[in-house]
User: Fold these one by one.
Assistant:
Number 1:
Amino acid sequence: MQIPGVAPGSPAKHLPADVDTLYEEARRATAGNAPTTAVLAIRKLLMHIAVSQGDAPGKGFVDCVDFLAAKGFVPPGGKGWADHIRKRGNEANHEIRLMTITDAEDLIALC
């Protein structure tokens, strides 16, 4: 096994600096075999995306996802993927459960 491995996903262009930083952190964490860290970064990424698109800072995660959906940043019928990120992030943050590389790679693909 090679550590770090190849980072999943691809670099994104034209992102706000903090959004790009979190996305790249999640990719590097996954490549470094730190999937729980990656999942937490991806959950946080959605909050940063919401604020970068005009939402007020300091809101809860659900409010941020609702903002993204209301403003059209979540495609029609796509709220399920944001909810999937929420559920995995909550499991990583609030439960005694470790995430897997597959969990992290799936969430990066959704982003």
Number 2:
Amino acid sequence: MTPRALLVAIVVLAILAIVAGAAAMRSRGGVRAAVGGFDRAPDSVRVRVQVLNATSTRGLARRATMLLRDHGFDVVETGTVSDSRDTTLVLDLSGHPDWARRVARLIGPARIEARPDSSRYLDIAVVLGATWRPPAQPFYP
């Protein structure tokens, strides 16, 4: 085999590997599916979520908001709290533990607590702790 034919064979194999990898990512739902599974908001239900950053890392509430919205949750409020915490807390405010479990599985390791709220403005509140790491953001050129 000549050096030129060997180079052509290597280039063709590299292109095939790239195409196969892209097809595999697309069939699995992309980067977000690998990180958060296929947990989504229930169909035809509006789940109102509040996301609060309880760390000193700027931008975590925004990143969690993007993740939750990508999976069908309606994030209606974001903010920061002054009390720092290590673990992420998902609060079930509306008496729907299934919704809280979906959010907790999507966000990652999180503790779930039921705290009924009679105002019914929010369904779920997420308080992000220092151990939460946002998923990698996709590159959109």
Number 3:
Amino acid sequence: MSKIRTNPDSLAQNLHAEVAAARSDQAQRIGLYHRLVSRAFGRLEARRLTMKIPRLRGLRRRGGAPFHATPELFFQQEGSALFAMPVERFTVASGDVCVMPRGMPHEEMARGGRRPFLTLITMFWPDGFSLHFGHANDEGQVRSDPHDRFLLSTPFVTQCLDEVASAADRPGETTGDYVHHLMLVVLGALLDGLGHPQAKKPPGQDLVGRCQALIEQHLNTQQVSVTWLAQHLGCTPDHLSRAFQRKTGVTLIDSVNRLRIEHAIHLMRGDEFNIGEIAWATGYATQSYFNRLFRRQMGMTPRQYRSSIAGLRKAIPG
């Protein structure tokens, strides 16, 4: 783990009441996101922000913890989080920021403090990024609020985060300054992106809207099922299934698989992940099951689809 510390101070403000009040008001949530990211930016600029960055060991390891195909950022607000990766673990304390590299299997467990656990999580998508708050249940598992999505030139920002992870993995005399300036660019881009919410309506606060947000946020998690979603949402699986199909016209499982295949298609347009890694990164336990569902939806195997994309690239002059 690379730990870049510059005398962090404690964050004393209790944010839970504000977060609760903002759940039904997107403008209020965006204002809260802006304030918290601005605070991290200011502390980074003053070199008073501690960043935790795991070493690049055990990337894309199958089995155990899931991984995302894009980097993530965790802005720890209250309490602390214990992150477990394949070859290391560390604690992210209140006021710290964690940079989780793409492809890094990890599990997060909440630890309390003087105030209940609270974290702000940034995820990246093909057309932008999202922010949502994470809370803890009685067992220390992190539970997510519905997210808000924002427009951004995602490849530029995620490439900066890739370089942050790479630089932190090769410590040297200039590593601290280099990572410091890269992170200023990243947080500055997030602050700019907060001014550009996606035009589509954010997920609703009703049961189905919260369910749709959870599916998007946890597509890489094999445990996502009707039962798992119902447990997170505090209802029975039968009630959730009926409500979801009544509102959307499709079954909950069909919706999960459709979104997973759409995400897999996006990943197959690049060459960073092989087919097995894409299956794992989209929440499938085995490549054979992923192949079967992909073929059912797309009319061809994942390998055939990737070959067709390569053929189109050759056919189009560069």
Number 4:
Amino acid sequence: MSKDSGVKSKRKGKAIKRRRTVPIKKDGASGSSSSLTLDEARDYVYSYKRSEGLRTKTVVEYIKYADYLRDWLAEFYPEIKYIDEVTSGVIRDYINYLQRDHFNQRTKEFGLAPTTINIRLRNMSASFNTLHEEGVINVNPMATIRLLRTDEDTFIPLTDDEKVRLLSVPDQEEYAQFRDYVCMNLMLDTGIRGSEMFDTKIEYVDFKSRAIYLPGEITKNRKPRILPLSNEVMKLLIELITEVKHNWPETEYVFVSNFGEKYLPTSFTRRVRRYKDRAKISKQVSPHGLRHQFCRDYILNGGDVFSLQRIAGHSDIATTRKYVQLSGEDISGEHARFSPIARLRRRNSR
């Protein structure tokens, strides 16, 4: 501006900003105007995980568990607004709350099981690891957090009589109950995961080879695999698919609701509990338990752990071995069959 313009510059006397500066944090306090809010951090992780090619239902889990933490913070730490204000001490308070004070809607009791809490912790670790690696936060509050100790899996298998009672409960004259009957038979015959079963399309069923082909897009480890079927279960699937095609010709899925919509795992889980109660079975019975039952029965019936690993779709053989742990009664029975001394005595007594 020229000196003789007669207009005084509004910038005169003001400091010129040339270099970036970071707000100073006092006494090591975290949180600044440059940090992401809790919701912004959640959305950042969601976007990052989607860019990694994770399935939508997997990525949605990050949203769910981030919202759980955010809602808890809003009640017990309302002053925390930014993600870098979450410390390891806050996380430990959250863990204590989940262990003792969280009301479990399903069991109507206070406190979540250690395995359930560990699921949350693993998800939170993955989220905070991403934020730390991306430079969103300087300190990872999950770095010093360890998973809770859990008791060894106490799966109690069903007896043959209990399995018969469970399968006899559904009324096969009713479509929904017949569908559930086929579901339970399929899980006990193949160990298929619930999520895989309800994503199974009619085109995946090979009637000639009596098998289901699961493409990598629906399996947990993204590897395709083949599930051989017994003659009995194959017949049940043919009967169900025939009915589904007749009533809802536009659907592509094997298992559908009474309205022809894709059957939901949560609905099946609730119905299995009802069948268990009606069968007067006191043991825990769930879709995952039926998968576990298959793995155990497969080994006890003479199958080997390596073929079971392929059928069950375990990436690690250690997972397969965990699933086929035997009860004390099983071990006693197997020892009686294969004890070297018992075998020697049987041989000499002939």
